[in-house]
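Methods, example record. To illustrate the input and output format used throughout this study, we show the complete record for Protein translocase subunit SecY. The sequence lines were provided to the predictor; the line carrying structure tokens was produced by it.
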Amino acid sequence: MLGKLTVLFKIPELRKKILLTLLLLAIYRMGFWIALPFIDQAQLAETLKDLQSQQGGIGQVMQVISLFSASNIGQSTIFGLGIMPYISASIIFQLMGTVYPPLERLQKEGEAGRKKINEYTRYATVVICLAQSYFWIHTLAGGLGSGKSLILHGYGGLYFQLVATITMTTGTIFLMWIGEQIDAYGIGNGISLLIMAGILARMPTAGWSSLIEPALQKGVALGTDTGIDRLLILALVFVFVVVWVIAITQGQRRIPIQSAKHVRGRRVSGGQRQSLPLRVNQAGVMPIIFASSLLMFPYFVFHWMSQMWTSSTFLSMLDGAFQPMSRGFIYTISYVVLIYFFCYFWTAITFNPKDMAENLKDYGSFIPGYRPGARTAAYLESVMVRITYVGAAFLSLVAIIPTLVSTWLGVNFMVASFYGGTGLLIVVSVILDLVNKIDSHLVMRNYSGLLESDL
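The corresponding predicted structure is encoded as:
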């Protein structure tokens, strides 16, 4: 394996792509810790610490949001919003492309249409960033509910709030630019790599603060306080989930395809048997991100209503049921239902059996036992419905593993999220995609892939 890694830097083009990608990721990590102006960071950290100690506090909610957005909004840095506004804008335009005819026509125009949609996406990202960053700065001015402003004395005016808003917006636009540069000149998917880098950077901190630091503060051995048995089980869960995620992510249902024979004079061409691979997890990690984001809304709504009407037992019960960090029965059931819904929804957007059947028909290929056209499309749709059910079950299990680990082993939920759940799923999926793209460069130059045997 070490020899294969040295090969990566022997190929000039691949070496430049890898070094550029590492440089841009390093720039992202440095900007991750540049604080916003006019914000009292010490008071903010103290306020967030108090909020995190409360059940379902907003500080804990922000930790969950930061997991998916490569952000550091809890520290109010220039990259505080992360890349989530750009992802939100991309999702909006992708969904609108299925119901809004002008966007649908642009999607079918090829490269020129995609460039136009990307331009609209950037404009929408700026609007979303301005709204979200101003809301956050305005919330800090109100003290996050503590009643004491977290903006430095003398800088609480509208002008300074707008400066901080524009700074956060510019930070997200710069992250968007970094992602596009990685796509164009680096290796891998830029946006996904930014999210992965943010998750990996949080893993050591989460493990230290929740497992090692408490034991050191109490002056006892790590195994006697934290529980060596729990650490071993957590390590086994980590290995199991990694292997399982790789198996399901790479899993495919191969549909046999027969190409028609063509006779030209004495020559016969075609007639080969091939296969059409359909991914088991066609939707990737997007259903989990969508479901987690959507479940934030009932939490904020019921939390606000329970504070307005403190005498209502029903509202207090709903507030507790939808707290992201409590992961109660109602929250878990809603989470699984939304994951199934978004799995089928996202698969329906990204996979069109009618177009696939028409493409097979145009290339003179067919599925044995099924007529080209409508019968083939119906068969492909039925197969995709079945394997999407399996993929949704896989995502649901991965999503609730942190809850099970946190409940059964008494481990901090954020640690369980990083080492045995959604965060791990994102990291493994992005790394697999990165390895595949590196392998494509190696194979073109007659080298074996990173995961291939030299024998």
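Annotations derived from this record:
Confidence is low (pLDDT under 50) at residues 219-226.
Residues 330 and 455 are 53 Å apart (CA to CA).
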